Amino acid sequence: MNWQKIDMTKLISIAEEAGQIIMGYYNNSFDVMKKDDDSPVTAADFAASKYIVDKLAEFFPDIPALSEESEEVVFKQRRQWKNFFLIDPLDGTKEFIKRSHEFTVNIAYISDCVPYLGVIHIPAEGVTYYGSHEGSFIKDSKGTRPLPVKEFEEGKLNVMISKSHLNEETKAYIEDLKSRYEVEYFNVGSSIKICKVAEGSADLNPRLGVGTKEWDIAAGHAIVIGAGGDIHILGTTTRVPYNKESLHNPEYEVKRKELLKKF
Q: Angle between the 8-26 and 43-59 helix axes, to the nearest 10 degrees?
């Protein structure tokens, strides 16, 4: 299906309804389990995943879906998918467990290895970012506004970095930036980092060292593209691809549009 025929309002509704399910767990007690890779997972992750996958199947029965919490789909099968939904039902599980607000629901639509549509909902704040290659938006208590909402300041960089993975590689990357720019950096959890670049509150979000997977960034990638920016493989002008044999992302940089020609 052509991405322009996908009903974005349905994707937004599904993400926000999944957020309500997650908040039902957030406001009560819940058990924390461990996956095979030792990362945490909760019943909220599984409940949100089931809801999203079931709703997508109801509205878009001919489009396959891949969720972080669904059974693994082997590459031999996935490589036949021209179009599919890529889902992180609860991005930022560690923040959710800590009762922080920095967790999200992510839904992306991928076509020919490129993310064309994305929705990121922040359940604890009632904020939704969404977008496509035709434009991106934020929906909150102030209404709906196009992204970016903030102007770029020449010579200054606001950098978003991972709250859980401030490693030595990232510290060295920031020190290099400081030799060329006035730099201020912020630690934020989940794909909110990418949303902040899309809205212009941040200019750059590097991810070095510890890996992420495709569902962690796909929805945000579509939103950033719609806001004029992109996500490039670290040190290149090559866009991060999707539906690879390995679902692990390369090291990357999320850049707002003004930085695309600078580095």
A: 160
